Amino acid sequence: MAVTRESTPDYHGPRRHAEECEAARRWLSVPYVIDGVLVHVDDVDVHYRRARDAGARILSEPEATGFGKVYRVEDAEGHRWLFTQA
């Protein structure tokens, strides 16, 4: 059985948590991914454009870092994802 918000009313994803908690609102006010998901992709720019065009909440544009090119995004529940290309 799939778990949905309706079947688990006690679950609070990051976005819902922030609706009720000032500290969570402050945590989510910066674009960083602290406890999110790191995903390696073949082409960050292509992945970024697809996510943006699909309406994802973009936290940061693609940028070169010391460990590759990255961008950050938030899903519908407020979970944060960091996509990286070596």
Automatic annotation (TrEMBL):
Molecular function GO labels: dioxygenase activity
Keyword Magnesium in annotation: no
Keyword Protease (UniProt): no
Membrane-spanning ranges: none
InterPro entries in the cross-refs: Glyas_Bleomycin-R_OHBP_Dase, Glyas_Fos-R_dOase_dom
Gene3D superfamilies: 3.30.720.110
Record domain Glyoxalase/fosfomycin resistance/dioxygenase: where: 38-82
Keywords for the protein's UniProt record, in alphabetical order: Dioxygenase, Oxidoreductase
Protein's name according to its UniProt entry: Glyoxalase/bleomycin resistance protein/dioxygenase superfamily protein
Native species: Nonomuraea fuscirosea
